[in-house]
Amino acid sequence: MSSKVVNNPKLIQDKVHALLTRLSFKAINGPLYANGKIKISPKGKNVFGTVECTKDLSEVNCKECLDVAITELQDRSYGMRGGHVFYGSCYIRFEFHRFYY
């Protein structure tokens, strides 16, 4: 988790939540992973995120795991420029820089 703090933590938290929720929906209706970005400023600054579940999970269990991870991430990373949560069956991450290809 990045120790750098953002200027407008509530706005960032809302944007990160929206991004991870959107990616979660995409993941459970497809290959059990997704990545993407969301614009957070008029100047084009983005937040990048990824979500992933292990292949042994059903869509329902994947969604449950990701929902718990998103909630935990929101609690642990408020105001931070990045964060991640790893569980045995799912993973989520967000950063202010692109970290996936």
TrEMBL record:
The keyword Secreted applies. It is found in: Secreted. Its main location: secreted. GO terms for cellular component: extracellular region. PANTHER family: CYSTEINE-RICH REPEAT SECRETORY PROTEIN 38, CYSTEINE-RICH REPEAT SECRETORY PROTEIN 38-RELATED. Residues 1-99 form the Gnk2-homologous domain. Pfam families: Stress-antifung. The lineage of its organism: Eukaryota, Viridiplantae, Streptophyta, Embryophyta, Tracheophyta. Belongs to the cysteine-rich repeat secretory protein family. InterPro entries: CRR_secretory_protein, GNK2, GNK2_sf. This is Gnk2-homologous domain-containing protein. Keywords: Repeat, Secreted, Signal.
